[in-house]
Structure formats: C-alpha cells, structure tokens
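Chain A, query sequence.
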Amino acid sequence: MSKLTHLDSQGHAHMVDVGQKDDSQRQATAEAFVTMTPETLQLIIEGGHKKGDVFAVARIAGIQAAKKCSDLIPLCHPLMLTSIKVELQALPELNQVRIESTCKLRGQTGVEMEALTAVSVAALTLYDMCKAVDKGMVISQVRLLDKQGGKSGHWQANE
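Chain A, predicted structure.
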C-alpha cells in the first residue's frame, strides 16, 4: 500500500479518518517570496499605492485563506485554528517581499496546508494589487519551514 495518506487500500482518493488520533498542540510555518521591480517594491514600501496598504490587505487575505483552507484544498480537514499569523517583509536588496505564516491549533491533524495556503494567497493578493504596475512579478519558493506536534513530531526544512 502507498505511503500517501489520501489513498485508500484500493488506491482511491479519500479523506483520512483522524477520529482515533489524540489531540495535541500543532503548529506549522511556511514561507513564500514575491520578486518584483525595484520601483514596485518602493511603491509598496512608501505606501504610495492607489489601492491602499498592500501589506495589510495581503495579510488579511492570508489569514482568511488559512481559515478557509478546507474549502480550497480537496480532502483537507476543516480545522478550528487557534492562531494565524501572516507577516510580510520587504527585502529591497533582492527586490522581493518575503511572506511567512504560522498557524496553530490543538487538534487531531496538522496545519501545514493552512500555513502554505496563507502564504500562497497573501502572495497572490500582493500580485493582484500590484499587477497594474508590474505584471512580471514572480511568486516563488512556497515551502513548509517547520512543523511541530502530532505523531510525527518536529520537522524542520533544511536551509
């Protein structure tokens, strides 16, 4: 049988039954980067964008996305998250914005997908707000950085 958890014994996709798992504290952190022109990044940093505070809107979008992850990702469990943090950081030396999200809960399954969804949607929102001035922006390096809790314990990405 496959080690992929969303396949049953016949190889069909299904939602994993987590009903027998013990509740535990769980946390996941993910990141993404958006590369843009120096002019676009400067516009964001200076707050001169006509649509308003780009970082604030992207942050709220990321939080909302984490809360709705099970509506977006098939077979993802609906979760009662206890904390969602989305941070955006301008990196002028790289013409990038780094986005990081940490999601937490006490429950029976992990929050990796919620953290990954948060950074992805925050990056897409940043793109949407700035596409009128920079259609060539690149969203990249969406990845899980850290996962804690549950049966598999602690996992950390290699730098």
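The mean pLDDT is 87. Residues 112-130 form the longest helix (19 residues).
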